[in-house]
TrEMBL record, chain A:
It comes from the Bacteria. GO terms for molecular function: ABC-type quaternary ammonium compound transporting activity; ATP binding; ATP hydrolysis activity. Residues 23-266 form the ABC transporter domain. The keyword Cytoplasm does not apply. It comes from Pseudogulbenkiania subflava DSM 22618. Keywords: ATP-binding, Cell inner membrane, Cell membrane, Membrane, Nucleotide-binding, Transport. The complex is probably composed of two ATP-binding proteins, two transmembrane proteins and a solute-binding protein. It catalyses: a quaternary ammonium(out) + ATP + H2O = a quaternary ammonium(in) + ADP + phosphate + H(+). This is Quaternary amine transport ATP-binding protein.
UniProtKB/TrEMBL annotation, chain B:
It holds the Pfam family BPD_transp_1. It is a multi-pass membrane protein. This is Glycine betaine/proline transport system permease protein. InterPro entries: MetI-like, MetI-like_sf. SUPFAM superfamilies: MetI-like. Keywords: Cell membrane, Membrane, Transmembrane, Transmembrane helix, Transport. The chain crosses the membrane at residues 53-72, 79-97, 103-125, 146-173, 226-245, 257-274. Residues 99-278 form the ABC transmembrane type-1 domain. One of its GO terms (molecular function) is carnitine transmembrane transporter activity. It comes from the Bacteria. Gene3D superfamilies: MetI-like. It comes from Pseudogulbenkiania subflava DSM 22618. It is found in: Cell membrane.
Amino acid sequence: MQSGKIVVENLYKVFGDKPQDAMRLLKAGESKETVFAKTGQVVGVNNVSFSVDEGEIFVLMGLSGSGKSSLIRLINRLMDPTDGRILLDGQDITRLSQPELVALRRRDMSMVFQSFALMPHRSVLENAAFGLEIAGVGRKERETRAMKVLEQVGLAPFARKSPHELSGGMQQRVGLVRALAVNPSLMLMDEAFSALDPLKRAEMQDILLDLQRGQSRTIFFVSHDLEEALRIGTRIAIMEGGRLVQVGTPQEIIENPADDYVREFFKSVDTSRYLQAKDLIDPSAAGLVVNGYPANHAELDKHSWVACVSKDHKLLGLLGRDELRSEGCVPSERCVPVSPVAPASCLPDVLQRLLGQSEPLPVADGEGRYLGVITATSVLSKLSAHRLQSAH
Amino acid sequence: MSDFLHRLISNPHDFLPIGEWVNQFIHFLLDHNGGAFDAFGRAVDLFAESIEVALLSLPPWLIMGFFIGLGVWRLGWRFAGFVLAAFALIFGTGFWPQTVSTLALTLSATLISLMIGIPTGIWCARNKRVNTLVRPVLDFMQTMPAFVYLIPAAMFFGLGRVPGILATVVFAVPPAVRLTSLGIRQVNKEQVEAGHAFGCTSTQLLFKVQLPIALPAIMAGVNQTIMMALSMVIIASMVGAGGLGNDVLSSIQRLDVGLGFESGLAVVLLAIILDRLTESFGRGQAARQG
Ligand SMILES: Nc1ncnc2c1ncn2[C@@H]1O[C@H](COP(=O)(O)OP(=O)(O)OP(=O)(O)O)[C@@H](O)[C@H]1O
Ligand SMILES: [Mg+2]
């Protein structure tokens, strides 16, 4: 069995009165459109399998109607699946009885809504403490706990106000606090920031990332905004017409979009901003000298620079091609020490370094092992490749 | 069957004797369940009488003070001034005791209507089948001319307060049911989902999410129920329910325009006071839910 915080296996959700007819067609490989034309049943989720690791922010993306809300509601069983399994910490939640489900929702999961869904008759503090109140926590304790979380997001001075006296961004902070106050191991967020203007949205993303730092909480985040997904997502999943098209880290998806639908998403986004140093390495830009001896004599002539590394591949420095004597051994003292960048450095940092030096920019991992060099040419060719892909 | 054919032939314009069937049904009920009706009637009478006796035993200034206080709290000094003037007028024209009786009748009919109407409304909101069953009944209750209820009510319970109150209840229940059910069904889908997502049981969902959010609509239903009850208890004086209706009725019988005007004015003033006050409770809630 797969492991993970959430494991979804062959999940289906059909809306309508004859789901079994639709299931037969779906299992025979028919599409959502065909099923609707033949049976009138609406397919929300079609044979979806994936797993979410503990502690990650898993972002689910897709166009309107692709089944994101249905999928997130299947995970806390606001909807019952037509077929398939959902394992939460290894327990199949599709088989839970109503009381078990209520207990699970109180203990392990909470949700943040697009329209905030605050209770207008309750104060900010009472809203924040709602989950704890439902779970039967006494007034004193629940208000202390809710207050602590309100303080974390800077809402403590508004605790006694009514939600409608707050701006949209602040209301959603209350929604976030309500979900966090119960200290869930899984937080579900359905387009939680979509109703906010871009500035407020970015602010909320920062708050979320801040609150998530050092936590093992898992977040399942639905969004239709790719910028948002790339910004906060540990991994991104993309849905189309009820199916899962691709799952991967932001880099993986940018580098290898599974199909045109996924590529379409990136059209409006300047994906080059998400390029990292490791994506920009040009493997043929520099020769390699290991422990004083060229790794490949024939190759050396092609490069104007050579990277010198120790026996265990630690970077020692760079050396101009002219300095290299063809007869062999290179004394390490002669290398120019150039401090390397980390593989995850972002494009602006890389550009800044490149502009400030005449040598290429070496990349080394956390232990100082040499991975390759970045040159102005390699950056330019990567960027133009991205433009072409977006224009595709 | 031959009876029916005979009727069809002899009287082709009225061959469906629905009225007769209803009469027979009522008599059947009376003959076989008289005891049950009596007991029920006595219970209602006891309830209504205690309210009326209690209100009548209070000194007038206390009742007036209560309404004036409410007026200041909910609507400000201007309305409180109006309440004071209205009560002074009623008191001065000598209709105070009848007005208190009418108030008591309205109060008991409203309470009974709400005790029936709000739970029914909740049930309708939560169960589609109940809703489809109840709706036509409500339409029937509301559109049937109000006088028509008085006759069977009087047959079951004799003359007096009880048939008046029960006919009033039939008339005043529908808005309570409708607006309660509407209010609950209008609760935003995501708010209900939020309730579920945080682990509400269905009772918690009702009391912590649906009813509080539906409160403005329910208060509007209460307001309408009170207004309908007030208008009906006046009519119910025809079966001897008492109160201001008696004066209105005798003014008609005696063609006494002056008496009709004075008693009618008392009804209007009472209606305005009750309407504004109950409406203000719903509005306060609605503003918060903006
Ligand atoms: N309760 C329902 N009854 C019938 N069909 C439904 C229901 N809920 C969703 N659907 C259908 O299921 C499909 C997926 O809907 P869903 O709301 O999950 O999409 P979504 O990706 O969240 O879209 P959006 O971005 O607009 O929120 C749509 O075709 C929708 O019409
Ligand atoms: Mg959605």
